[in-house]
Amino acid sequence: MPELPEVETTRRGIAPHVEGREIVEVIVRQPRLRLPVPNDLVERLVGARIGGLSRRAKYLLVPVQAEDAASASLLWHLGMSGSLRIARLGELPKKHDHVDLVLDDGAILRYHDPRRFGFVDWLQGDAARDPRLARLGPEPLSEAFDGERLHALSRGRRLAVKPFLMDNAVVVGVGNIYAAEALFLAGIDPRRAAGRISLARYRRLAAAVREVLAAAITQGGTTLRDFVGGTGEPGYFAQRLNVYGRDGAPCRRCGAELRLVILGQRASVFCAACQR
DNA sequence: ATAGGCTCCTGCAAGC
DNA sequence: TGCTTGCAGGAGCCTA
């Protein structure tokens, strides 16, 4: 379940192995992903050179430059079960290894995605103009994201604060797990209407979002070597979760039994004593 | 404009 | 033991 920290960990892990390399072969074993793999992806990519990787929200951007061709990028989304890893030449693909980019030094960038919620798409020209990227709110670890923004955007909104925080137009990269954890740290009830939360409390929430995401990225870094080397599993569950997946268990702070509610079709665990 | 529901997919776990 | 059922999740799309 890659959220922003896992995508960032992936970017950092694969970048040194792919940047500057030429793609010599592309193998698509399963083109039916969340979006179909573009028909002409193979012919466009073979012979192209990979530029500097970047990330926007949970999207990975892979610039590719072919000889005498306009600039273009791959827009890669890992969905909820996708992973990218570096495999060695000759390493046999496993089940759900859907796409391989074979590089000129023999390394393979290999995409694995059991649930196929992810996709890889071809973007011609300036990637930032793609509508999927153009409408996104600020990065949670950037200066543009703060309590003032949350407060301003939420005025008049009756939507519960948890789905509000998970809206990509508000702030990107805050999925179900980190939304639940940040609301716990900030002491805010996930059911509370977004428009009825004070600026002071939104400042605490913004700080909590930054805190949980930054901690998760740091943890991802600790498992980077294993991740790139072969297990293909980022150190996602290693971190200590306070509420996510713990309904019925005691609150780590006050001992009260954690409750489960459904908000925006998503399970939301919280402590009714600590979160108001 | 806003809020809520539905959908894609597979693996896993729980229930019978 | 072997079946069925439900759940997990991002984000685009749809409807009221």
Give me the secondary-structure topology.
Layout lengths: L3 H15 L4 E6 L12 H5 L3 E2 L3 E3 L2 E7 L6 E6 L5 E5 L9 E7 L4 E5 L6 E6 L6 H4 L12 H8 L6 H5 L10 H11 L12 H24 L1 H8 L27 E5 L2 E5 L6
Antiparallel strand pairs: 1-7, 2-4, 3-4, 4-5, 5-9, 6-8, 7-8, 10-11
This protein binds a DNA duplex (16 and 16 nucleotides) through loops.
Tally the helices: 8
- Largest beta sheet, briefly? 5 strands, antiparallel
Which regions contain 5 or more consecutive residues with pLDDT less than 50? 223-238
Strand content: 15-25%
The level 1 CATH classification of the largest domain is: Alpha Beta
Can you offer a commentary on this structure?
The chain has 276 residues and is an alpha+beta fold. It has two domains: 4-134, MutM-like, N-terminal (N-terminal domain of MutM-like DNA repair proteins, Alpha-Beta Barrel); 147-270, Helicase, Ruva Protein, domain 3. 29% of the residues lie in helices and 21% in strands. It has eight helices and eleven strands. The protein has helices spanning 4-18, 41-45, 131-134, 147-154, 161-165, 176-186, 199-222, 224-231; strands at residues 23-28, 49-50, 54-56, 59-65, 72-77, 83-87, 97-103, 108-112, 119-124, 259-263, 266-270. Strands 2, 3, 4, 5 and 9 form a five-stranded antiparallel beta sheet that branches. Strands 1-7-8-6 form a four-stranded antiparallel beta sheet. A two-stranded antiparallel sheet has the order 10-11. Helix 1 (4-18) crosses helix 8 and helix 4 (147-154) packs across helix 7 (199-222). The radius of gyration is 20 Å and the shape is elongated. The model is unreliable at 223-238 (pLDDT under 50). It binds a DNA duplex (16 and 16 nucleotides) through loops.
